[in-house]
Amino acid sequence: MRCLLCQIPLEKYLHKNGYWIYRCQNCHLGQTDLKRDYTKFVKEFYSEGYYEGDPTRSAYADYELDKPLIVKNMHKFLAFISDRKPSGKLLDVGCAFGYVVEIAKSRGYDAYGFDPSSFAAGKASELVGKNRIQEGTIQEVTYPKASFDVITMFDVFEHLQEPLADMKKLATLLKPDGIIIIATGDTRSIAARIMKRRWTFFIPPQHIFFFHRKNVAKLLHLAGLKPTAWHKVGKWLSLGYVLHLARTTGESAIASWVYTRIKKTPLMRFPLYIPMKDNMVIIAEKGGKQS
Ligand SMILES: [Zn+2]
């Protein structure tokens, strides 16, 4: 494998969940070797088990029960653009069950979304209506060019196999003065540096790319986009979600023990504010140099 940005061979970085994560020695971009076809993978992997606590997957303990907290985080993300783009046509990439589309509508946007998982896209259609949701990957979906004021990518960027090609396509969907807002993990955050392999973002196979500020800026630039604002954020998570992450990606036996004991109780939904600030929110507009 070669670095998407520097084109030099990647080196082995760490092994987790049966996958190797590689890293570029020059720009420190991390990449999981997925070992199989991506499009097929995303359609199979993001099924019910992904959202409902399958112990073999470091994903959601119960996505629907966690909705109030997910909604809280998404409002926080959308607040970053409320001055600049308080309304207009919005597209949510990787919309899962459609929560961002629903929230964006409530904030005054004409909101749409898509997801490669037919399970998730079905749930989203039930929530916000079929006319607002498409099923497919970024490369598969069809929207008119230059039609969106805002494109949102919350906790999606790290799931992409071809982020450069994908960002180029998304840039074509933006109006000339449109903006993209991305929330993803930051490999140079203090949490990532301290936790190393146990950092909750290192979850192969679903997390494929691992960025920090500098290399994500380079990628956006190559896609014809220019970052204009950066934010660091903490997140609201449920106790159940935190324990599920800790027992899977954190490889913690204690978390696994506690999780099993509180699994069917309301304690699972106990809200925790995680001030780790290992997420970065990037706002970008058109105007970088297209490669
Ligand atoms: Zn590189």
Describe this structure in words.
The protein has 291 residues and is α/β, with parallel strands linked by helices. The chain has one domain: 3-Layer(aba) Sandwich (Rossmann fold), CATH 3.40.50.150. Helices cover 31% and strands 30% of the residues. It is built from ten helices and eleven strands. It has helices at residues 38-45, 48-51, 67-79, 99-106, 118-128, 163-173, 190-195, 213-222, 239-248, 253-262, and strands spanning 11-16, 19-23, 30-32, 88-93, 109-115, 133-135, 148-154, 174-185, 209-210, 223-238, 271-290. A seven-stranded mixed β-sheet has the order 6-5-4-7-8-11-10, sandwiched between helices. α3 (67-79) packs across α4 (99-106) and α9 (239-248) runs antiparallel to α10 (253-262). The longest helix has 13 residues, at 67-79. It starts with 10 loop residues before the first strand and ends with a strand. The model has no long low-confidence stretch (mean pLDDT 90). Bound molecules: zinc ion (ZN). Zinc ion binds at residues 3, 5-6, 24, 26-27, 29.
